[in-house]
């Protein structure tokens, strides 16, 4: 290798990125510019990059970041189309970086970016794999949040420790710094769905990590709406159960089973009320019960969806759901009626009919009711 090549390599090495800050975003247009500015200010001259992973925000967050990235090479954008989810966004952002240290923060400025230098210093000084920004240890607090939310957070943290391989004060934190080699060793076992990437990382590691904590005050969101929802709570519970069962739980199949169970209860309640109580014909009772069950399934399924339908879109989705389920319902009702006419007990006939219709419903409704607005092929655009 020539002397010029050696000098060039040394010059490039001096400019190598030491830290990547991953900011997953969805509808954070009002916050993202200030979040990036504050982060760059506290990092100063440290060689770093900020990777914004945006899930095709309707408010144009990606467009704002794209303009910033054209002016500052330290800012990068991964614009995802056709898929959403905080954990998968963080994983994708981390995998796109070559930095030896990876930090994760929310873009809504609830995490205190001024803690980053202290987290970096602690990682270097104590040779740690992971440094967690904690709300539950010395120097940390939940800020001005309502007492009920604080209590929910504390209960969730207690539950999370059942799957962690180590003792940490805030396993639900979304603010942490991790070494790249430790992250990559656990990455193949991570559950890409869900919102608690730190908990997943701790539960998926094949060795006990060296962990440190830095306290910070959890701030109130400046603009926009919180992403906390019923769906997030369900995803969290799925993550806990998945890790406790050794990763053998299929979230989508479990979701379908829970939805189906609610529909099954409604179906039999309506069927019994009409057939036994009102003495309607079995065929009529079964048809009305099927419609009631489908309506229940839609309501429950919609509540558990990350891309939940609202307003006029919910009614459109409901009608589409009924039309898609109609073929399965026809088979279900017809088969159950035939069994009942052949003197099969009404409950068994109804159950057999439901089983026939469930196969169709599972295969079709997920694809065309909630995923239809998205592209059939997930796309990621990086800049």
TrEMBL record:
The chain crosses the membrane at residues 228-246, 253-276, 282-300, 321-340, 346-368. GO terms for biological process: glycolipid biosynthetic process; polysaccharide biosynthetic process. InterPro entries: DPM1-like (IPR039528), Glyco_trans_2-like (IPR001173), GtrA_DPMS_TM (IPR007267), Nucleotide-diphossugar_trans (IPR029044). Residues 21-183 form the Glycosyltransferase 2-like domain. It is a multi-pass membrane protein. It is found in: Membrane. It comes from the Bacteria. GO terms for molecular function: dolichyl-phosphate beta-D-mannosyltransferase activity. Residues 256-370 form the GtrA/DPMS transmembrane domain. Keywords: Glycosyltransferase, Membrane, Transferase, Transmembrane, Transmembrane helix. GO terms for cellular component: membrane. Belongs to the glycosyltransferase 2 family. PANTHER family: DOLICHOL-PHOSPHATE MANNOSYLTRANSFERASE SUBUNIT 1 (PTHR43398). This is Glycosyltransferase family 2 protein. The lineage of its organism: Bacteria, Pseudomonadati, Acidobacteriota, Terriglobia, Terriglobales.
């Amino acid at each position: 290798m020539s002397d010029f090549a050696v000098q060039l390599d040394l010059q490039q090495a001096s400019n190598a990125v030491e830290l990547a800050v991953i900011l997953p975003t969805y509808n954070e247009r009002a916050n993202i510019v200030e979040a990036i500015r504050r982060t760059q200010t506290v990092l100063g001259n440290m060689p770093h990059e900020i990777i914004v992973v945006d899930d095709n925000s309707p408010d144009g967050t990606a467009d704002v970041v794209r303009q910033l990235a054209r002016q500052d090479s330290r800012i990068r954008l991964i614009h995802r189309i056709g898929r959403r989810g905080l954990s998968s966004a963080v994983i994708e952002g981390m995998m796109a970086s070559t930095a030896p240290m990876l930090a994760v923060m929310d873009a809504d400025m609830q995490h205190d970016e001024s803690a980053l230098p202290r987290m970096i210093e602690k990682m270097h000084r104590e040779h740690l794999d992971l440094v967690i920004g904690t709300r539950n240890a010395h120097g940390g607090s939940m800020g001005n949040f309502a007492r009920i939310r604080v209590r929910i957070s504390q209960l969730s943290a207690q539950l999370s420790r059942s799957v962690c391989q180590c003792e940490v004060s805030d396993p639900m934190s979304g603010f942490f710094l991790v070494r790249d080699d430790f992250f990559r060793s656990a990455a193949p076992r991570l559950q890409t769905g869900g919102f608690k990437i730190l908990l997943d990382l701790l539960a998926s590691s094949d060795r006990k990590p060296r962990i440190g904590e830095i306290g910070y005050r959890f701030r109130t969101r400046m603009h926009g709406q919180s992403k906390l929802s019923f769906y997030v709570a369900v995803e969290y519970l799925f993550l806990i159960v998945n890790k406790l069962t050794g990763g053998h739980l299929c979230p989508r199949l479990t979701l379908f089973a829970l939805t189906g169970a609610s529909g099954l209860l409604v179906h039999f309640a309506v069927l019994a009320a009409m057939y036994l109580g009102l003495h309607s014909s079995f065929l009529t009772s079964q048809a009305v019960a099927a419609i009631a069950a489908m309506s229940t399934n839609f309501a429950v399924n919609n509540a558990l969806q990350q891309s939940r339908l609202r307003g006029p879109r919910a009614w459109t989705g409901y009608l589409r759901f009924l039309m898609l389920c109609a073929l399965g319902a026809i088979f279900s009702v017809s088969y159950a009626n035939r069994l009942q006419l052949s003197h099969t007990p009404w409950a068994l006939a109804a159950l057999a009919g439901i089983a026939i219709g469930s196969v169709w419903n599972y295969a079709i409704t997920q694809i065309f009711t909630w995923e239809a607005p998205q592209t059939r092929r997930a796309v990621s655009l990086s800049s």
